[in-house]
Amino acid sequence: MSLLSLALSLVFLVLSFLAPNTLAAFLGLGALGAAAFARLEPRVRTLNLTLLTLAFTLFLRNSGNTLGLIGLVGILVALTTLPRIPRWIRVVLGLAILLLSVPIAGFANTFIFELGIQIGIYAAMALGLNVVVGMAGLLDLGYAAFFAVGAYTWAIFGSPQAGKFLQGNFPLPGEYMYLFMFIAVVTTAITGLLIGLPALRLRGDYLAIVTLGLGEVVRILANNLDHPINITNGPQGITPVGRPPIDWFRSLMGTLGVRLDETTDYQLFFYLLVLVMIGLVVLANVNLANSRFGRAWVAIREDEIAAQAMGIPLLPTKLIAFMTGAAFSGVMGVIYAAQRTFVSPSPSPSWPPSPSWPW
Amino acid sequence: MRKIGFLVAGVAALGLALAQSNVIKIATMSPLSGPQAALGEQIKLGAELAIEEAKPRFRQLGFELQLVPYDDQANPDVGVANANRMINDPDILGLVGTLNSGVAIPASEVLARVNLVMVSPANTNPVVTDRKLPNVNRIVGRDDVQGPAAAEFVYNDLKLRRVFVIHDKTAYGQGLAEEFRKRFEALGGRAVAFIGTEEQSNFVPIINQIRAQNPQLIYFGGIYSQIGPFTKQLRERGLRMPLMSGDGLDSSEFERLAGSQNAKGAYYTTVAGPVSAFPQAKALAERFKAKYGKDIEGFGIYAYDAARVILAALENAIKANGGKKPTRAQVAQEVRKVKLKGITGTIEFDDKGDIKKAKYFVMQVAGTGNWADNKLIKVIEVAAPQK
Amino acid sequence: MRVLEVQSVTKRFGGLVAVNQVSLEVNEGEIFSVIGPNGAGKTTFFNLLTGIYTPDEGRILFLGRDITGTTPDKAAKLGIGRTFQNIRLFGAMTVLENILVGRHIHTRVPYLHALLRTPLARKEEKKALEEALSLLEYVGLLHRKDELARNLPYGEQRKLEIARALALKPKLLLLDEPAAGMNPKETEALQEFILKIRSEMGLTILLIEHDMRLVMRISDRIAVLDYGSKIAEGKPEEVRKNPRVIEAYLGRGAAGGAA
Amino acid sequence: MSLLELRNVHTYYGHIHALKGISLTVEEGEIVTLIGSNGAGKTTTLRTISGLVKPRQGEVLFQGRPIHRLPAHEIVALGVGHVPEGRRIFPRLTVEENLEIGAYLENDRKVIQERKEQVYQLFPRLYERRQQKGGTLSGGEQQMLAIGRALMQNPRILLMDEPSMGLAPVLVDFIFEIIQKLNREGRTILLVEQNARLALQIAHRGYVLATGEIILFGPAKELAENPEVQKAYLGEG
Amino acid sequence: MLEQILVLLPQVLFDGFILGFIYAMIALGYTMVYGVLELINFAHSEIFMIGAVAGVEVFRYLAPLIPNGYLLLAVAVVVGAAVAGLTAILVERMAYRPLRRRGTTNRLVPLVTAIGVSFFLQDLVRLIEGLWHNEFFLRMRTIEDLEGAFTLFGGAIFIQTKSVIVIVVSVLMLWGLTYLVNRTKLGMAIRAVAQDLSTASLMGINPDQIISRTFLIGGALGGVAGVLFALIYTTINPYVGFLPGIKAFTAAVLGGIGNIPGAMLGGLVLGQLENFFGTYLPILTAGNFGTEYKDVVAFLILIFILLFRPQGLLGQMVKEKV
Prior knowledge:
CATH superfamily of chain C: P-loop containing nucleotide triphosphate hydrolases
Radius of gyration of chain C: 19 Å
Shape of chain A: globular
Number of strands of chain A: 0
CATH architecture of chain C: 3-Layer(aba) Sandwich
Strand content of chain C: 15-25%
Number of helices of chain A: 14
Number of domains of chain A: 2
InterPro entries (chain B): Leu-bd, Leu_Ile_Val-bd, Peripla_BP_I
Strand order of the largest sheet of chain C: 6-7-8-3-9-10
GO biological process, one term (chain B): amino acid transport
Number of strands of chain C: 10
CATH topology of chain C: Rossmann fold
Radius of gyration of chain A: 23 Å
Number of domains of chain C: 1
Largest interface: B-E, 36 and 37 residues
Strand content of chain A: under 5%
Largest sheet of chain A: none
Pfam families (chain B): Peripla_BP_6
Distance between the termini of chain A: 36 Å
Protein name (chain B): Branched-chain amino acid ABC transporter substrate-binding protein
Organism (chain B): Thermus parvatiensis
Oligomer: heteropentamer
CATH class of chain C: Alpha Beta
Helix content of chain A: over 70%
Structural class of chain C: alpha/beta
Order of helices and strands of chain C: EEEHEEHEHHHHEHEHEEHH
């Protein structure tokens, strides 16, 4: 079993040089499956995963075939979930995938950066959702609305759009994006407050539908607030949205020996930015989970009445969870707007609602 | 045994890849699935036909032509993602598309980063070229001419004064409807209402408003998929006033969804004229029908021409480059210099990428069940407004 | 000192008068029991005290302060801890975490400190943890601290629920049928436990219980509810002899006269 | 052949080993009682018999036929009636509907009517309240309804789980009278009871459970006199 | 302005009823499934869509065979109900039952599954219709018999024969459902399972069977609503279920989820609100806020009502036992 699995990985490694095509990618995914699900000795499994990381990286570098990225994500999942892999291997391999493999692949095909950024944004949002749904047990289906609020917050001021209804010199310079990441935290938290204040008084299932409805309301507003005052530019969307200047980043990468061109510089920058954000969101998650807030949320999820009897006020505590989740979503929205340089409401009221369904 | 099989396959694939380094790819991007697929497919097939016909010429120059179709689902997000994919394939040197201005605007920002040229057979929103991106061109007219042209037709030719304006809350539909209203009111007419709706099924509230206002004509800036059922419900509820729309209505699907009886008599302007509007289009229509088994419609013809623009620019660039594969920037520059006698007329670009003289057609639905029977009422040829 | 003073409190549900003009006073350090047949309004009475229901009439004073119509969380913050008839633990949390939730109001960490896990947050967390552990040791559940609450045997769940209420550091503890489902031996242990926490933690205890032997043995005073009204109050021996109580509660002997 | 027999039954709730090899028998016409402290596995035993939980090991035989793999509703059809712990009345069905749903498997309207009348005879109180919603009844009335509902099935054996729970003493007496009356009419009863003294008074035989195991069994009289049982479950007085 | 409103009012109310009845029928599917399983069956909007598609196909293929429009419609309603009902059963069997069997306690799991099923059904129908007719938009065939129209009150209300049919059919369906739930043995069993599933099984009721039948009934009603929707609004597509779906669910919540008369009332109220604001918003706000805000208004009213009456219009306050 072990030998077969190792052999599969080795074959894939060879193929990643000789014939890095779709067929080979499927073989690689098969090898990954074998490494993850077959009964293997822990040491063999670890070796196997390391080999596959190398193989998928080379495969991506040589082909740019996006299937390889699925392999890397798969390895990440395997590293975080499979038992009995030494901790340092998990960390080293995980970091290697995130900081080396994906960028290497991205230089072969910048669409991989695009995908990586997408996956990263979704991952960060999902982690934010963990506070709301996972800990506090609030069925929030309007989560995407906060993402949109965040995205619009920066898009309006980071483009000439704000000039259409405000005095002043717009667009704001790109550096302001960092400032707006904080402002978006505030605006989305306030939006969360406004939505949560009525919605969180309701029972769980009602909350689901009310948030779904309110998510739709935000979309309708984005689509229609081009008159009487033009705030969102309606269905036309807003473009181009400013990005921060990254000369420092280019020279930094230059000193590291990484040469960037116009198709890769922002992509790598945003990719790393999203990674940093994920790290921060994870940290916040862990901190909150081990605090009185995290415990209060879980207590509310388990039994509202008993939680109240412990002195936990329901509405404020739920609101904090709701606003925390909203803020995470909002920050990612700012990054999304800057990375895409374009925001718009979804073109038609189809399922799933744009810009991104919370799942 | 199997390993050897893989090895052989691998070596073969490698060889193929090496042999293909002289490949030039031209992409199309249009909705190939979803509500607007009928229009999007015309764009893909029109471009494909042009490329098929040019293949022998390019083979003589030492290049293998390939078409890469992208489906944008009429969704800006998907369009941007596609654009990101495209700029990664160094063999892609030009793009025919898109259908929707809403997709073209953000996607072209991405393409502009690498100067990948696009020639649109359908984008009519002024913003598309008004940003003055060096890689963005179109061979059709603009909504800020199409809308006013419709307004003038309603005011001067039909001599109607009270109009009910509806749009579909998209970049295209709303833009067109606004341009229409502006000119119509400037001429002295009155827009009794200006309403946006994303509704796909229940048009009853709007029909009730129309019943209350009793306008002389309804102008609907939008796509056939919405105007079709709207028209059907309108007529079923006994309202008979004339209807007018823009090029979004220019599809036989409109007649199917509204029903021939209800569709009959509806006016529309289009920037992509029908086969009957162009003397040379007949032969093209026959080739198209022979190859794909269906009729070519306006956007198919324009996509054919748009592809030919890119092909001509490519040929010039290859020549200028001494027979070697040109860069994207070179192709983009050559596109602006093209002067081509196309099926749809003479194609020349101004410094924004607009066609120098665009044609606008006023049409009326015949309601015979055959879209080609639609009556060409008027052709207007106007230069793009210079702001 | 008077810990609790209830003044003619009434609660109606639709046409039903669940609690009817009930008044009573509980003094510091007392164990005060409320007994009565099922449906007499005992649990409703508790729910009025802890703010789950708002009385339609009357006032409730806690430590001299009017708490009529307060909310459950505010009642808890003021120092009223309680258990529930049908054990309401946080099943998916560990025993230790249940106690830590009980410490919620005493862990003063502002949100941003918790988010950033500042030194202040660490310090408070550490303190909370130590206190929770010592409480668990006190009630004898330390060896179970990492088990999920829902996996505990019944008796220990009852105990944990009381411990969780104690973590609030309440002045008044409301126990709703703590002996339900216990055998005589367990009930006896519970009796010892209640007496112990009363004296060692300086608590005042309000008790609802069906087990007459337990009630008679540990109560300082007893109030009897029947159909929502208080029909008797006094020391155990007085109540035991009260003819109205005997009639309403113990029945006239045989069956036959159903309900 | 016993009417009901459990052979070495092991039942789990998740990871908790709730029944650790229970074996017992109930003969036709008996009242058998299961006593023991809370968490001993009494309720789980009944739930295992009526199929609400599945044993991981062992057999349940009803009239000699293994039933432990059948779903609950099929076990009911064989003639096992269960009055669940906490009564579990359907709160938004009327008293009459609660009774009718008890006879869900019976299609003959006449038979249903007859049984309903029998139940009303046994509990006149229910007749008075027949149009009332189950949820509005008092605790004692709900217990009567739960018993009546099970009787509508005309079961061969009646499993009763803590019928005295939460009832005032006067009602407990009444319910126990009813149980004895039913037994005199020929019904077999398996009774789980917290109130061991009372249960052993009316039962023929008894089993004592502790932490998922049977630690003692025998005729009820003997058990009631057993000093160990007295000390542990009957209190010293 | 007031005059403008009054002139249209009878018409607006009438049209609101039609929409309201359709919402009511869809809402019943949500409310019944919720009553029994406490599950928001998001896939119900696709069950509705499948019913509509079935109706369109019946009209497409059987119109030449069945000369009488009313008979054809009856066939379409029956087929739509059957197809939608069976789909609902299938969805329950394949998606929800396995989860139930595994005893998943997390309420989010079935919810997310429902959303997944929803996607799956949309794309499945899109694929099938794409391959079969190469159509994305499906048009209900026009049948001459059903196209009549007349006016009432001197032209104040324009009424199509179709709308009358919609109202008659939906009233019949709603009455039938009420009878079924309150007066039949199956109805009693459904209510019993809804209140206490495991005790119901102690009565000899097979819960799985009752759940299946609940899905069948709810699905069939949704299917009928779909056919009527296609009849009255003429064009449908594979994604047409989403908006009516969430609105009907909103209606169910508005009326008090789990409560059958509540779902009907909620549907009617929501239909009226939507039509009312869709028509009058531009008039009321002098054109600043148009028809596009009709859903915003509907949702805001929902929230408003729930704030003051959290159990919904007819729902009973289920006070948790403390």
